[in-house]
Amino acid sequence: MNLSLSGPALNRAGDGHITFAMKHIRNFCIIAHIDHGKSTLADRLLDYTGSVTEREKQDQLLDNMDLERERGITIKSHAIQMEYIYNGEQYTLNLIDTPGHVDFSYEVSRSIAACEGALLIVDAAQSIQAQTISNLYLALENDLEIIPVLNKIDLPSANPEEVTDDIVDLLGCDPEEVIPASGKTGLGVDKILEAIIERVPPPKGNKEEPLQAMIFDSVYNPFRGVEVIFRVMNGEITKGQKIKFMATQKEYFADEIGTLKLTQVPKNTIKTGDVGYLISGIKEAREVKVGDTITDARTPTQNMIAGFENVKPMVFAGIYPVDTEDYEELRASMEKLQLNDASLVFTPESSAALGFGFRCGFLGMLHMEIIQERLEREFDMTVITTVPNVSYLAYTKKDPETAVIVNNPSDLPEPSKLDRVEEPYIKATIITKADYVGPVMSLCIEKRGQITNQTYLTTERVELNFDIPLAEIVFDFYDRLKTVSKGYASFDYSPIGMRVSKLVKVDILLNGQSVDALSALIHADNAYNIGKKMCEKLKELIPRQQFDIPIQAATGAKIISRETIKALRKDVTAKCYGGDISRKRKLLEKQKKGKKRMRQVGNVEIPQQAFMAVLKLND
To answer: 355: buried, middle or exposed (CB in 10 Å: 19+, 13-18, 0-12)?
Structure first.
């Protein structure tokens, strides 16, 4: 008896094949550290199952942004459905490709919650890295079946036996369960597909219950609005049905639903356990929140799917147009970007030095770089980005219970009124070679980190855990970590809440005027050193004028450091040969008065690199 099912048999509503159809669905994701070959292996899976034709083939097929291809990273989640015949039966495999970078960990957590299994990909040359471990813990918390894959075994530097032992120690599995593979040559792809079907459980759920589906991604289409990508947990969704998003309480009609092959395939019904897309003419990306629950508007489910949270920005920076006339154009560009990336948050602000711009919230430093690059590439905007900082909580003496959110150093209350300031802390996990433990520890202690744990994963590899202020890692921490460990250390972090800190606001004064764009909140112990370094750096970068320019660093009313850019001077006494000294003095006094008057009315232009100089104080 041939058990393979054709498409219509799977889609027919109300027949007896439904539980049978669920048995033939496998939902899985791929988790890995950056650059461990996740996107390339996904390409091979698509080739092997015949999901792409020769004409459609290209490297990193699921990474459709130019930036993703150039940097070799995945920025957006992607879902794609494959059909595969195994032992004469047809299976539907839903692959959910996830970003590997720490900034996008919430997206990864929702993608993992939509799956029953995960391919854990480890590079045979680089072994287990920090991001691999953190995503693995996420997968284990969601009770996913883990299939370990040892990738890149065709590399000359690969060390398969040792890395297999590392995976066995980490997972507690048998060495035979680790599948050797190569995304480049396609080796082991058949074994991976077999393991997905044999080891990943089919989805659970009840088609009789009210509709309950989880949104794990959304894509903005300029012609059709926001396309929502979801996984049905219970019940089923039909075309034309009136639906409701539980977090926003908004109702829509399901104008079009379907499954995601390389192109969209419209369907009339998407049943329990399957993954699909929904188009309902939503124009605002903010109305679609990743992790939200979709239900039927008439008979809604009472239970939201657990784990939903609003994405919180971690790093803040000002983005200003180089030419103030481009302000409205920049606003339009930011709004278009927000349609594609709902985790970008921005509010208008003005600066005395830079004019009108926006205070933007980002998920992390990589997210900030990507937004800045997309503004320049996709919208031809030349922008100035101020020093990134994080969000603090300030408490005043008048009301020590109510917190004031400080996203910008200029929002900090006066020192005389301030009771205390709390700053966000993170738990940092660093995995490095044993040879570099000393330099890595020194770096973390310099950044006010406190070591909480040190574990030897093998004789060669050490895992270090630190509690460290988020503000200390947003500048140059990642670059310096790679430098001190010669590129071997991998880094991952998760927020652990707010702690009281002794922070002061350091202002930079140019010619007696405060430059708000260069202000920073800094720990009191580091204020003098950083103030001094900033003054020295600005002295190098600001061009000389016709008058002396004092550069001062101040905390409150106290000046903690000063440098002076000397004036360009004309030798007014050159024409005096000999004679009475009073003639020379008279000319010098006249010049001095002119310089003083100039300094009162003179304006100091600050070059763009001066704003970025603060980031490179250690160079």
So the answer is: middle
